[in-house]
User: Which sequence fits this backbone?
């Protein structure tokens, strides 16, 4: 039944790739907002429900991570189905680490049958960072090849082997991730272009704290014509503390957190007794949210930025104040 | 308590340019060091072969000293630094074998440091005395199997060549060692 | 060359439990030049094992020998004459050598003393690095002579990923350089960087170990069979 519905969508709106809410919002030229939900490390449906209640209405779609950082969690597709049933649109993350081309294609067909349309293609964090460091990784395809495969499934109705998908390919809105700051920096816009060629319809970036470097990256990407075919959602994330800011600066590849931001996070707790942990945390988090909102305001002005992707890691409560204060609430409704 | 005190067998691989001369000087200037210490002269501690150290233990030594030039004063520039690395490697190996890595030590002396050599040698001997015997049961060493003569001689000429031992054993008495 | 290193003494000691007499067989080819299983290493390891088993109260008698090439039958067959006196062979060859010994001597247990690591080259004194995984379908033509299959932890064919650290180090291990960082740099140097904008298609892994044990047959090198008419 769902399959029929999907096919109908495709025929009635040939200009849209998949007709997902995210795609419609972007197609309508609205500034899109996506969030992120990390599925639990068990099969507790309540965790999903709680997180959905914090995001629903404030984001256009929510990424569902796929064993992020190599730690086993509820599957992104399984969690995605729960989320659809709760009335929130998922962006399924799909890593090349855990599946070969057979599993990827069958998972995509299964996901499409459940009405999942947005897929974010990732190579995946290396398993050595996770809780099964001795696992064998797959990497049958890389993220470029995965995007190309999904594009051909959708547009050419064919499996990777070239065989026809009888009954038509799945309607997919294909996404990619981009780290604008990893070395070599000068090649990152080219790589974004390559992802566009491979079949990306939208891109979500790594969290941005260094606005100047991001603007340079976007300038080059726009010049390369990337944004003509791909919607770039700039990644933002509220900082919880100065410690977290320093950790991200020191441990995340390519990430620069300007001193100014670290100083602001430090200043936020100045004058509050170190005994009063609660007050310090509240002040620190409030400042993190403020910085995030300011950044969104700046990002709205950057040419080529079509929306934002908010990564509030295990802090979904922050989404509502950020989206509201950034003037992005209520979310537009784009009816089919 | 045993009737006789444990007298450890200690072999010192000494560089000719420094430690060997220092040992000589210790003898001639009447600085005492234990009689149980036997010296093997090497052209440089860079010649120290890890296999020689292990086989020395296997053949009954309780401790092995590798004595080279002061850091930065190697006659061949870096032989003593290589020796240091190998001593560290074999030290780890000794632990894996079940022997204490303290049984192997590298010291650095100059040719003029006779007194210092005697002091370090005595100190090391005391350490080994405290550790006691290795606990190895002395056994004849295993044999090396020659390769099939007819088939492999042609293929194997180089491998078959006997590994000439260029170590020469020195009688401690001949270098003026004096411990009664 | 094939690069290997020795298993921990404790592991080998466990393998030798219950054995009275063992023949250690080193190899004079790849593992000799990477200092894992040549004559010198055989001497060192056997000396260590004799002492270790002795101290553990279960002494094992170990004889030593080295063959020039443990992976070829012609070089190892002579060992068969003496094997009756041994409970096992302890091979200091690579995994190929161990199996050649096992294939040649069906009645003797063969134990591995080495962990075979990779096909690689020395990148400096005392350092070896992986360079090839034998995928059976070389793509170095497209990647500037640097292999991402063996040198990228994710085996990306359209890299680099977002995990390249400053100076082109890999996030998985800062000691290893990012293969794709170097591929881009090298192709830039050769003025062929634009080739990298092409999406390299999914690899056919059937020529890799995914296709099962691989085999090469060269008719021109096989022993000719005498036809009746050829006499």
Assistant:
């Amino acid at each position: 039944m769902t399959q029929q519905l999907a096919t109908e969508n495709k025929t009635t709106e040939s200009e849209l790739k998949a007709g997902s809410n995210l795609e419609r919002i972007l197609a309508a030229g609205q500034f899109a907002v996506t969030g992120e939900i990390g599925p639990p490390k068990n099969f507790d449906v309540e965790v999903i429900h709680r997180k959905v209640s914090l995001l629903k209405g404030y984001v256009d779609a929510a990424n569902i991570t796929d064993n992020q950082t190599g730690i086993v969690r509820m599957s992104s597709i399984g969690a995605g189905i729960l989320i659809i049933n709760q009335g929130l649109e998922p962006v399924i993350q799909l890593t090349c680490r855990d599946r070969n081309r057979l599993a990827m294609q069958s998972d995509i067909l299964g996901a499409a049958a459940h009405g999942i349309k947005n897929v974010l293609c990732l190579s995946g964090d290396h398993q050595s960072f996770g809780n099964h460091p001795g696992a064998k990784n797959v990497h049958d395809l890389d993220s470029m090849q995965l995007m190309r495969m999904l594009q051909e499934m959708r547009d050419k109705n064919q499996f990777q082997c070239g065989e026809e998908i009888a009954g038509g390919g799945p309607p997919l809105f294909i996404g990619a991730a981009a780290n604008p700051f990893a070395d070599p920096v000068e090649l990152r816009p080219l790589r974004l272009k390559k992802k566009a060629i491979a079949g990306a319809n939208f891109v979500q970036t790594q969290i941005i704290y260094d606005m100047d470097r991001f603007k340079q990256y976007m300038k080059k990407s726009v010049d390369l014509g990337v944004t003509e075919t791909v919607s770039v959602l700039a990644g933002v994330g509220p900082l919880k503390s100065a410690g977290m800011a320093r950790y991200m600066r020191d441990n995340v590849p390519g990430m620069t957190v300007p001193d100014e931001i670290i100083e602001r996070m430090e200043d936020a707790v100045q004058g509050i007794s170190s005994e009063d942990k609660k007050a310090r945390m509240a002040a620190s988090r409030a400042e993190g949210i403020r910085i995030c909102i300011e950044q969104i305001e700046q990002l709205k002005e950057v040419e080529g930025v079509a929306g934002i992707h908010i990564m509030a890691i295990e802090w979904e409560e922050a989404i509502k104040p950020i989206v509201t204060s950034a003037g992005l609430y209520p979310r537009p409704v784009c009816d089919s | 308590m045993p009737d006789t005190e444990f007298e450890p067998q200690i072999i010192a691989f000494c560089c000719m340019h420094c430690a060997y001369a220092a040992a000589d000087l210790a003898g001639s200037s009447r600085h005492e060091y234990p009689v149980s210490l036997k010296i093997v002269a090497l052209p440089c501690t860079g010649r120290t072969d890890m296999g020689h150290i292990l086989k020395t233990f296997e053949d009954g030594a309780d401790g092995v000293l590798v004595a080279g030039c002061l850091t930065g004063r190697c006659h061949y520039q870096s032989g003593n630094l290589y020796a240091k690395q190998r001593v560290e490697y074999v030290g780890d190996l000794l632990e894996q074998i079940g022997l204490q890595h303290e049984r192997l030590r590298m010291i650095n002396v100059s040719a003029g440091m006779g007194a210092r050599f005697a002091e370090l040698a005595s100190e090391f001997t005391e350490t080994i005395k405290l550790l006691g015997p290795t606990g190895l049961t002395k056994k004849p060493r295993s044999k090396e199997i020659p390769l099939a003569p007819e088939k492999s001689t042609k293929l194997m000429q180089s491998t078959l060549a006997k590994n000439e031992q260029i170590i020469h054993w020195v009688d401690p008495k001949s270098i003026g060692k004096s411990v009664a | 060359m094939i690069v290997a290193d020795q298993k921990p003494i404790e592991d080998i000691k466990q393998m030798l439990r219950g054995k009275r007499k063992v023949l250690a067989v080193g190899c004079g080819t790849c593992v000799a030049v990477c200092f894992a299983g040549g004559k010198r290493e055989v001497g060192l390891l056997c000396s260590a094992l004799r002492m270790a088993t002795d101290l553990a109260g279960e002494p094992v008698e170990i004889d030593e020998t080295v063959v020039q090439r443990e992976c070829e039958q012609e070089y190892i067959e002579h060992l068969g004459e003496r094997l009756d006196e041994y409970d096992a062979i302890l091979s200091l060859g690579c995994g190929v050598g161990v199996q050649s010994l096992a294939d040649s001597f069906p009645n003797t247990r063969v134990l591995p003393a080495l962990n075979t690591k990779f096909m690689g080259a020395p990148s400096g004194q005392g350092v070896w690095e992986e360079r090839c995984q034998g995928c059976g379908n070389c793509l170095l033509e497209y990647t500037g002579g640097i292999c991402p299959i063996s040198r990228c932890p994710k085996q990306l064919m359209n890299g680099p990923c977002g995990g390249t650290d400053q100076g082109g180090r890999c996030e998985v291990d800062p000691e290893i350089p990012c293969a794709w960082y170097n591929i881009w740099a090298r192709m830039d140097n050769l003025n062929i960087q634009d080739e990298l904008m092409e999406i390299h298609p999914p690899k056919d892994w059937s020529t890799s170990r995914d296709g099962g044990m691989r085999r090469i047959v060269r008719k021109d090198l096989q022993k000719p069979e005498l036809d009746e008419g050829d006499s």
